[in-house]
Each structure stands twice: as C-alpha cells, then as structure tokens.
Amino acid sequence: MAGVVMLTVRASDADSLVTRLFRKSGAPPSHANVVARHLVESSQLGVHSHGLIRVPQYVHEIRSGHLDPRAKPRRLGRHGAVSWVSGNSGFGQVGAIYSALAATASARRYGVGLVIAKNLGHTGRLGAYAELVANERCVAVLFGNGPPSSHLVAPFGGIDGRLATNPIAFAIPNGPTPVVADFSTSAMPEGKLRVARNVGGRLPPGVLQDPFGNATDDPGVLYGKPRGTLLPLGGPTFGHKGYALAILVEAMSTLLAGDETDDRSRVRANLAILAIATGGGFEQAAEGMARYLRSARPADPQRPVLVPGDPERLAREHSLVSVDRRAWNEIGSLARELHVDVPVPVDE
Fold first, then answer.
1. Of 46, 126, 59, which Cα lies nearest the Cα of 336?
2. What are the tens digits of pLDDT across the range 131-164?
C-alpha cells in the first residue's frame, strides 16, 4: 500500500490519538479534548486543510514556545455589546469557543454582540464557531486573520503577500440544521495547498503565482524561498471582489483589535465574532428559504441543489476520516517520540 496517498482512520481512534498527543505535550484534558475533536471533525467533514494535517504544526508550536497549551482566554475590556478578548497565546479553538459564547451572551442581553479576540493560536475551521452561535438562535458572522508572517495572499493586481487568507464564516439558525458557510477570501485556503503538496497534486488555474507574478499550478511554490503568493478569491479576473472582502476582514479583526496590519511584532491570529439575536418566526422563515433554494431544478439530476452546510451535515454520519500519508507519518513520528500508540489505518 506504499503508493496510497490518502489513508482512512476510524474517527474515534484519531480522536483518542490526537487527545493523547496534546496531553503529552502539556495540554490539560479539557483543552486537549476540545482541540482534538475540532481537528478530527474537520477531517471527517472533508475540510482536510483544517484537520489532522494541523496536529504536527500545533505540537511544534508548543515545543517552540509559540503556543501555550495551558493558556486560558480572558476578557480585556467591554463597551456595551462589544468585548475584547485575549487568547493568551493559547489554542485558537479554546479562545474561539470562549469568544463565541461571550458574543451570544451579549446578543441575548443587547440583541447583538461583537467579540474581537487577539493573541490566538491557529483557530481552525471558523464554521464550527459560527454553528455554535447559530445553535444559540443567533445569526453569526465571523472574520479571521493571521499575522504578517502568514501574509501569503497578494492584493489584487499585486505580487507581494500583504494579507492572510482572511476567512469569513456565517451561520443562520434553521431548526436542527443551520445554514453554515466558511470560506477564505483567497482563491484557495493555504491548508488545501499544503494537502496538494503532500499528495503530489496540482492546482487549478487562477490560484497561485510564483515570486515573479507568473501563474503556476505547483503548490510547492508557496513554500519556496522566495515564496509565491496566492491570488484573492476570484483569481486574476474577478479577484477585486475577494480582495475587497479581505480588507473588510482586516478592519473587523485587526484594526478593531487595536492592531496594525503590517506590525511584524504581531505573531498570532485575531478573530471577530458578531452574533445577532433572532426573534419569533425567524427559524421558520429560514427553513422556508432553505426549502425554496433546494427546490430549484438541478443542472445535474444526480446532484440535488443544496444549501451551505448540507454536505458537512451528511459527512457527519461517517465514522471514518481520511488523512494524507505524509501528515499521518508525521503524526506517527510524534506519537512514537511521546510513547503514544498509533492506531492502524483501516486500509492497511
């Protein structure tokens, strides 16, 4: 099976393995459980860019002192419905959940809540926190960014990296199945290029350019020296739209946090979470909207029309997760160093 580039692992086995790795790396049980569940679920949903591939990154960041696995977030200040939070250099998932719950608490009190969090580790899949807010019967809009070291995205018409992938997520309460969307404002999330590099894949047109501004389909160019840059969402023709959205993310999550976009001393992620309380009848109207959208005739009869969040909801029914062989081997090496047993993939 040496030629297989993707392996299949039981989700429960992966969850147990990752939890033990983080525990051995110094994380308390509550933090280790939260982060492991987030990463495994991301892989389970097919969002490999924010799944198990991130485990080695987090362990290395703990070892280098960049990430404090024990840190707890704290509120820095508050003005009415707006709060500022520090993740204290801890796991981004822990700080993001704290911030999401704080935003919904403000929304219940004021009708709207905005939390701007800074000094977070990699936050992972923003859709998870948007869904958390929606489950509290609030509309959620999230804006996430990274420090200058992660500025891998060129402005529209430019060559040099000046922005992170600056994702936006939103969720709309819709009964038991909220509408959830989560997307980068770059042509492709960085993690997907990492996966493509690991499996020897190529990129579609309009995603990446080399250090001289020439189009390329080689994901390794993003990790070279000098490195290439991602294009904004929309590529070379319509990238002005993704670029504009990325600037909005900067305003919401960097500038409102009191930070500056080009401040090289900033080394961690920021996140803004907006929660808007809904009133009676909202969820029924949202369900009606979703039914109406799904009722459109499909262009392909074998592929019914969906709304954002439907593919992930269906994927949650699976008990297996996929991971690329390179990432799994890196996880295995860390596990052996930490004397943690590695489960055998089901396809080996």
1. 59
2. 999 999 999 999 999 999 999 999 999 999 999 9
Residue tagged 């001289």 (tokens): 212
3-state helix vs strand vs coil in the chain, percent to 5: 40, 20, 35
Three-class DSSP category at 90: strand
CB 338 within 8 A of CB 26: no
Show the tokens assigned to 66. 């960049």
Q: Which CATH number is associated with domain 72-187+231-317?
A: 3.30.1370.60
User: Please, is 20 exposed, middle or buried when counting C-beta atoms within 10 Å of its C-beta (0-12, 13-18, 19+)?
Assistant: middle
Largest CA distance in the chain: 59
Q: How would you class 3 by CB atoms within 10 Å of its CB: exposed for 0-12, middle for 13-18, buried for 19 or more? A: exposed
Across the beta sheet with 215-216, what order do the strands follow?
215-216, 208-209, 229-230
Q: The whole model's pTM is what?
A: 0.94
- The answer to whether the CB of 324 falls within 8 A of the CB of 199 is yes
Residue 83, pLDDT score: 98
Percent of the chain with pLDDT over 90: 91
Q: How far apart are CA 118 and CA 145, in angstroms?
A: 10
Distance of CA 164 to the CA centre of its chain: 12
8 beta partners: 322
- Say if strands 112-120 and 82-90 run parallel, antiparallel, or are unpaired: parallel
Mark out the alpha helices in the chain (DSSP H runs): 11-24, 29-44, 55-64, 92-110, 126-134, 190-199, 235-250, 282-294, 310-315, 325-337
Q: Check: CATH 3.90.550.10 for 1-70+319-347?
A: no
Domain ranges of the chain: 1-70+319-347, 72-187+231-317
141: which strand partners? Answer: 170, 274
